[in-house]
Amino acid sequence: MNTRTNDKVLVPQDQLTALGIAAFQNLGLAPNAAADVVKILVLADLFGLSTHGLSRIESYGSRIQVGGINANANITVDKPAAGLRLVDGDNGIGPLVGMHALRAAMEAAQDCGIGMAFARQSNHFGPISPYGLIAAEAGFASIIGSNATTTIAPWGGTDARVGNSPIAFAVPNPAGRHFLLDMAMSVVARAKIRNALKAGSEIPDTWATDASGRPTTNPKEALDGFLLPIGGHKGYGLALMVDLFAGLLSNAAYLTHVKSWVDAPDEPQNLGHFFILIDTRKLGSVQWLTERMTDFAAILHDSPPADPARPVIQPGEIELNNLARQKSEGIAIDADVLRLLQQYANQAAGVQPSA
Ligand SMILES: NC(=O)c1ccc[n+]([C@@H]2O[C@H](COP(=O)([O-])OP(=O)(O)OC[C@H]3O[C@@H](n4cnc5c(N)ncnc54)[C@H](O)[C@@H]3O)[C@@H](O)[C@H]2O)c1
Ligand SMILES: O=C(O)C[C@H](O)C(=O)O
């Protein structure tokens, strides 16, 4: 391991993965389950989405320890129709439930061309683009969403009744430059405001309001208040649609029925997710898709940039560039996060590891 700055450490992907798996196993997860969770969180870190990567061991680990997440979840998959799967997460750790739902939707899409999985009884499942990448690498286009703890006021309201529910769209380019749009419904994810508070910096007044609904630059006031939705009433409407699919239709909790992992860490969240997958090989050949996706990106890249130092990119490029760089030079991980992973990996954490 190679220290780069005072608070970031570069760790090779395989070492970080092994450390993460050991840590989650000591929190009581079976080896395969720990490997699924770490696959999503390490991909998040490779993408540069460190707010949603292995740093989440802090909240996931403490929630397992206080009984809020079931480390030994018995996740089940029902098949009510050829292209449909219903996943019950048994209050398992979110990325594990997410991986089960992703695999179930991929299997359904292989059979039917299009497959959909709804997951219920889940918890915070990390960022979405890692699931989109796994699907894209297997040839599937995807639309994936999750509901979330309520942090947004209904448009015109003054209390938190709407989740900052993320949605992601991914279309594979078999040559490797997949389109990956992964976005929360707020102007920024709440984790970025938590980071500003930690760093002692102000936030733009377009990110959030204080508890009385007034825009604020103070991250503490923002965390006590509400996130602002993207595009005003339109982002509000989109957030509700994601919750209708991820929460209401999946038979999970929705809106204020979702438990907050911050305020009630010892209670199951009963979050829901949805995964819609399309097998692109049923639409045309690999060459057909590669040519069209490459042309699609080229049309965008050819736009003369307003600032020559900032060429036009398509969604997902920042993350895929980070992934390529960090795969070769190592993953930049917060020293605090690394320490916590090492603590969990080196000592039994008070929860009996499963067989
Ligand atoms: N599980 C949850 O409850 C939850 C809730 C909220 C957010 N999240 C996760 O948080 C992460 C961050 O979300 P966010 O909304 O802050 O993301 P963001 O604003 O950083 O990026 C959103 C999208 O815009 C693209 N993008 C960024 N700059 C671009 C540019 N100049 N040109 C073209 N495209 C560009 C990115 O590739 C990405 O696909 C996501 O991974 C999301 O899934 C998870
Ligand atoms: O962490 C959360 O509370 C939800 C989401 O991941 C976010 O960052 O807003």
Architecture of the largest domain in CATH?
A: 2-Layer Sandwich
Largest sheet: 7 strands, mixed
| Binned strand content | 15-25%
What's the total count of β strands? Answer: 14
Task: Name the helix and strand elements from N-terminus to C-terminus, one letter apiece.
Answer: EEHHHEEHEHEEEEEHEHEHEHHEH
Bound molecules: nicotinamide-adenine-dinucleotide, (2S)-2-hydroxybutanedioic acid
- Tell me, briefly, the overall form: globular
Radius of gyration: 20 Å
CATH topology annotation of the largest domain: Ribosomal Protein S8, Chain: A, domain 1
Can you say what the CATH homologous superfamily of the largest domain is? Malate/L-lactate/L-sulpholactate dehydrogenase, NADPH binding domain
Total individual domains: 2
Q: Give the spatial strand order of the biggest sheet.
A: 3-4-5-13-6-9-10
CATH class category of the largest domain:
Alpha Beta
> With helices defined by DSSP (H or I, 4 residues minimum), what is the helix count?
11
Approximately how much helix is present in the residues?
25-40%
Pfam families: Ldh_2 (PF02615)
Keywords: Oxidoreductase
Family: Belongs to the LDH2/MDH2 oxidoreductase family.
EC number: 1.1.1.37
